[in-house]
Amino acid sequence: MLREFTGDLGKYLPSYIVPGIVGLVAIPVITRLFPPEDYSDYALVMAGISILTGIGATWIAASVIRFFSACQLDNRLGEFYGTTVKLALLSVGISSLVGLGVLFIAQNHISSNLYFLMRIGLLVFIATSFYNVVLNILRAGRKVNWYSSFTIWHSVIGLGLGIMLVICFHCGVEGLLWGSLLSMVVAFPLAWKIAVGKPAFKEGSSRSSLASEMTRYGLPLIIVNLASWVAMLSDRYVIGFFRGSAEVGIYSAAYAIPQGSIFVIASLFSLPAMPIGVGIWEAHGVGKSQEFLAKLTRYYLLVGLPAAVGLSVLSKPIMHVFTAPAYFLGYSVISLVAFSGFFAGVSTIFGMALQYYKRTNLIMYCNIICAGLNLGLNFWLIPQYGFIAAAATTLIAFTADLIMKIIISRHFLTWQFPFQSLGRVVAASAVMGTVVYFVGNSLTASNLVNLIVGISAGILIYLVMLLLLREPQPEEIAEVRSWATRIFRRG
């Protein structure tokens, strides 16, 4: 089972490494093309797209992952595809009307430029929703290479078109939105053909028990997504209301760095883990699922924690290299957001146990509590302390979410948490972080050189420390050697 996971993880890597690199490259480009005030409008539109997608499509995508394996085993994929399409049309249609209504009400309370961008954002939301549903059908069917290809296409071509429209046609920030929209519209027909083909959609599938089951499973995830949006993105609006658009732009640019790295790592692990984990649960039950989750947790700790530590100690040179000088003060939030992303990844693993039992309502309750905590702290602290308070409250909310999911999931499914591995990872990360801090911040007068040397030294020191602490298992070392030998022979 772990060989399947690592195999799929390797195939998913390009779909996250390439967009991650593109996202990081985009930060210095966009922050040099636009001042913080304009970047603020773009960030607010993207936050709005995110909340609408959470309401209209993410719950359907999650249901696709949860029910695909069972329907495939029962030879009910025709009914499954028909149900998914009808639910998507209904949900995205309702969400679009809600978005239009909110935008109409807010028209007189926001700038004309932001109102114009929000209207384009509605079109991007519709395209994103259907595009994501199709990509998750590919993911559920473990057509990983195609999933990666379409994800990379959207990331690279969308940004490339957007920057071209900005530079060549002087479109302003809206060019970035049009580029994203066009890339999805062009790719969607091929993605649909590969994911679904020409299935025999079963008549009346929208009235089937499957539709009810998917709805019961997925609808609580709307509240989960809303609560996640509050915890991760609503602070932009609170900062804008109390502190102004410049701080929104600085905070959003700094947030984008851990979002494009630590949060990507967390998402990368969940991509293969959820469909494979559901398949194990459906086919083998509790025992194999416990084994899978224990090993998944260990692997995530090995990668996620040192990444959060490294990003934290290199926050200053990172901001110098990746943003314009007007954004530099955002370095102060990077470590807080980085550890928020790390905790979010651990929380997702504990949440998987609840999804096996289809108890998404319990995940919903956890997220509601955390969202309320986050929003309350934001209104209390942001007026006085600004965007640094937004990052601190995000960390508090994600920590609370993790604690609650640990406690609740233990009532359904328990597995052996890798405490020994955690101790070794903490020790190795501490040594690595100490050395990298001095290298990355004071080695030379060049921030770029310090960053490159710091990252390289950090990876090497961390791996050496793991070996000295005897964390890698013999079979893992043998697998790495075998993999390296195959690569060397091919070369």
What count of structural domains? 2
Secondary structure category: mainly alpha
What is the subunit organization of this protein?
Answer: single chain
Fraction in helix: over 70%
Shape: globular
Strand content of the residues, in percent?
under 5%
Overall number of strands:
0
- Distance N terminus to C terminus? 29 Å
Main sheet? none
Low-confidence region ranges: 203-207
Q: What is the average of the pLDDT values?
A: 85
SSE run: HHHHHHHHHHHHHHHHHHH
Number of distinct helices: 19
Q: Report the radius of gyration as a whole number of Å.
A: 22 Å
Task: Break the fold down into its secondary structure elements and pairings.
Layout: H1 2-33, H2 36-56, H3 58-73, H4 77-106, H5 112-140, H6 144-169, H7 174-195, H8 209-232, H9 234-243, H10 245-259, H11 262-284, H12 286-313, H13 315-322, H14 331-356, H15 360-385, H16 387-409, H17 419-442, H18 447-468, H19 474-490
Helix pairs in contact: 1-6, 1-11, 2-4, 2-5, 2-8, 2-9, 2-10, 3-4, 3-5, 3-8, 3-11, 4-5, 5-6, 5-7, 6-7, 8-15, 9-10, 9-15, 10-14, 11-12, 11-14, 12-14, 12-17, 13-14, 13-18, 14-16, 15-16, 17-18
